[in-house]
Design brief:
Blueprint (H helix, E strand, L loop, with lengths): L4 E6 L5 H13 L4 E4 L6 H10 L2 E5 L7 H6 L1 H15 L5 E8 L9 H14 L4 E6 L13 E5 L6 H11 L5 E6 L17 H15 L6 E4 L34 H10 L19 H19 L1 H12 L1 H10 L5 H26 L3 H8 L3 H12 L4 H23 L8 H9 L4 H11 L4 H29 L4 H10 L1 H19 L1 H10 L2
Parallel strand pairs: 1-2, 1-8, 2-3, 3-4, 4-5, 5-6, 6-7, 7-8
Length: about 525
Amino acid sequence: MRAQTWGLVWRPPDDTAQVLHQWQHIRQTGAEALRLETDSVPTWLLTVADSLAVTVFVELPISEAPARQLRHRLPEAREMLRRLLAQVAGHSSVRAVGLARRADTADPEACAYFETLRDEVRRARPDLSVYYETRFIEGDRCGQAVDFVLLDARDAEDPLQQLRRWQRAHPTVPVGLGRLGTWVRADTLRGLRVPHAPEWQARYLEHHLNRLRGAFDEWVFVYRWQDVERRHPALHLDRPFVEAYGLHDGQGRARPALDVVRGIFTGTQTVFAFPAGRPPSDPWPWAVLAGWVPIVLLVLSYRFSPLFRLLGARYFRAHGFYTEAVQYGRDLPTGALSVLGLAEGVALGVTLAATAAMLRESPAAAWLVGLLSSELAMPVVEAVRTPFVLLPAAVAGSAVLLGSWALGVRLLSRWGRRAGFVQAWTLAHMPRWPLFLLMIAALSLKPGAGTGHVLLALWLLVEGWTLVRTLRDVAQVVEGPGWLRAVLAVLHPGCWLLLAVLFGLIRGLYTGHTIMLWHLLTVR
């Protein structure tokens, strides 16, 4: 390999005229290497690259795969590799073949996949190197199976430090940067003071490309030449919930970062001036304001409803008296209990909204949503982009689901001790008081992807605890045969949620997705 080689990640468009137009502009940037994100490499493009001594990296279209899935897809990958090698045969510009992008290389089971395909390449084209791209550094287990590794360094605070970490952890495995860049916001705010504005992106690349110059002798690929236009927001190959990384936008308009890359790649310029602009105004603290709503509702209910105070005292201090009061329908404040249900729905909505905003930074969340179909992924992505919508959704969802369950208790209690709707509503909502503590934690803890993961796990724990407490109270109030309690347990919304999560984890253990999820949650 040549020392300090600058390159670009490029997805050639489908139209040949556009490919030629972009190719001419790419050559003007001084890029010495290209990573092609395409299933089919134009032969004429390789011929031109041969004549201009441009290094080309070609890759198999296998991304975000768990180790077990790599093993299952090995016959398919071998066939794709054979076709790719036949396609690039005779072209000296093709120097390396990527075997997978951001697969679960933290699982040793993945190494056999890379070793098998490496041997295929060496038998067919001994002059070609093989590599893969990974998110994992200290946790990587398969570096010895390839000739070198490329790190996904998008949005990294210190890409150079990531390289040094790899070199300390794997001193015998050469490493480069497969994706260097930061995302660009979709609105019209501009200037260096605006996080993720086009000028911010340009300064990011200027700073890190200058730091990387001469610091190590491997590949550096800027991600990417142009944004990929999509008909709907989706989690595909880019940053969670955002896809604007390009030196050009989806319509081909150049961003300031293009001048930075051209200047540094050609060695004509290393310092750039950009307008500072005005910092964006602080976002409206709607989550904090909304968080006061359930607290105020609880205070008002406690202040103006003596029966609510009595019910709360019985629930926390004398639970037997509480279940007896519910069983006989005594001292149940209908209005205050309705307000309690509203307050819990708001608390849940605020918690989920705050958590969703944190998960915007989570590779694990992006990967999970990327596994969904477009129809299911769309509402999830929109909820994360505009987390406020989760507030009314949680209020309405809680009212409908728990109200339906309470109605089911009312109808099915004929086979046990009869219970009215208000009694069942009380059983459904009183055990959900930990949601208020969870909301306070969501608004108080330091935002971050790790915090979002913890809050999501705590929410599932709260739902499980609530389900157990509710079913215990139902068994004492409704009584009846065992099948009745089993049916009421299955009908509870918390049971649906927990069973769905449990089913997903168990199925993921079989497919390898659960292991990859754990690795993504613990990667740093």
